[in-house]
């Protein structure tokens, strides 16, 4: 596998498989590319150190981390493997939606992420602001009251 130049992936979190993952990174000589950090609660700290967010999950409910990235003006790179991804990512405008397992596509998207306009990212974040979401809920509840 050819390693892309100038790409470092910071991985945050803990879990039952973390030690196995760290060992796999070492076994494959990827310690300079895949940097494994523990859990970090300070989202501003995370996003100030990274140019974009990679969410490589096979399934998710509603991934709040995408909105956290948008709040910090960061584009996202996501596998199109869960329903909410289509609602949260405008391909080529706020980030990139890729077929599950398309790691070559991930590398290409990382290289293109700097071309995403922050105004698009901020606009997507605003679609999910508390004010807008509460207004939608109020509207829905009002419609249900009329039934």
From TrEMBL:
<dbReference type="Pfam" id="PF00534">
    <property type="entry name" value="Glycos_transf_1"/>
</dbReference>
<dbReference type="GO" id="GO:0016757">
    <property type="term" value="F:glycosyltransferase activity"/>
</dbReference>
<feature type="domain" description="Glycosyl transferase family 1">
    <location>
        <begin position="5"/>
        <end position="119"/>
    </location>
</feature>
<protein>
    <recommendedName>
        <fullName>Glycosyl transferase family 1 domain-containing protein</fullName>
    </recommendedName>
</protein>
<dbReference type="InterPro" id="IPR001296">
    <property type="entry name" value="Glyco_trans_1"/>
</dbReference>
<dbReference type="GO" id="GO:1901135">
    <property type="term" value="P:carbohydrate derivative metabolic process"/>
</dbReference>
């Amino acid at each position: 596998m050819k390693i892309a130049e100038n790409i470092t992936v910071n991985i945050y979190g803990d879990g039952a498989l973390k030690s196995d993952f760290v060992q796999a990174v070492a076994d494959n000589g990827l310690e300079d590319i895949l940097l494994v950090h523990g859990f970090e609660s300070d989202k501003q700290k995370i996003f100030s150190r990274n140019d974009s967010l990679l969410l490589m999950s096979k399934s998710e409910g509603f991934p709040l981390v995408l909105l956290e990235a948008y709040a910090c003006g960061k584009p996202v790179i996501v596998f199109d493997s869960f329903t909410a991804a289509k609602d949260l990512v405008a391909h080529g405008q706020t980030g990139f939606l890729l077929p599950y397992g398309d790691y070559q596509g991930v590398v290409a998207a990382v290289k293109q992420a700097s071309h995403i306009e922050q105004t698009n990212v901020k606009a997507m974040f605003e679609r999910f602001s508390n004010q807008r979401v509460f207004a939608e809920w109020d509207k829905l509840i009002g419609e249900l009251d009329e039934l």
